[in-house]
Design a protein that fits this description.
The protein is α+β, with helices and mostly antiparallel strands. It has helices spanning 53-61, 68-77, 79-91, 96-172; strands at residues 3-12, 15-24, 35-41, 48-51, 65-66.
């Protein structure tokens, strides 16, 4: 049986998210699968990936073929790197501890890079909110000045009406 690691579509129209599953290559896209090993949500920035690393590594090691998109996801999560490092350990190029150190160094660098991206996105969002708030404050000031002018004009009109009434009252007597 040829097994594939592929995406299974969920969500609704214009908001798709995916489960990462191991399935028989002959099974329908959203049909029967052997095991669910993670999820992928491309709607967030950056895309959210939750993956059972050990199970993904197991399935890659036993010969399950990932689709192109899943290969990119597994590569980004380090599954394919770990498979490569395990191959080096089997050949005797280095020991298990050295492989783990290499993997941990790669993971730390990747997390640092992703942290910078997330921080940049958060900063952009905060700046946009700040600009929107400043614009709203200016709009509110302009409206307040306009309301104050109208109140002043109404007060002046009331004073004029009172003066006119007091002037007419003595003239009528």
């Amino acid at each position: 049986m040829a097994t594939k690691i592929r995406l299974q579509r969920f969500g609704h129209k214009d908001y798709a998210y995916y489960h990462i599953v191991v399935a028989d290559s002959r099974a329908p896209r959203d049909g029967k699968f052997i095991e669910r090993i993670g999820s992928y949500n491309p709607n967030t920035n950056p895309a959210t990936v939750q993956l059972n690393f050990e199970r993904a590594l197991y399935w890659v090691n036993v010969g399950a073929q990932p689709t192109d998109t899943v290969r990119n996801i597994l590569s980004g999560e380090g599954v394919l790197l770990m498979k490569h490092l395990q191959g080096g350990v089997k050949k005797g190029a280095f020991d298990e501890a050295a492989a783990q150190r290499k993997f941990d160094a790669w993971k730390a660098e990747k997390d640092k890079k992703n942290g910078k991206v997330a921080e940049s996105e958060a900063r952009k969002k905060a700046e946009a909110e700040k600009a929107l708030h400043a614009q709203e404050v200016e709009t509110n000031k302009a409206k307040a000045e306009e309301v104050a002018k109208k109140k002043q004009a109404a007060l002046e009109a009331e004073v004029e009406a009172a003066k006119a009434a007091t002037e007419e009252a003595p003239a009528a007597e």
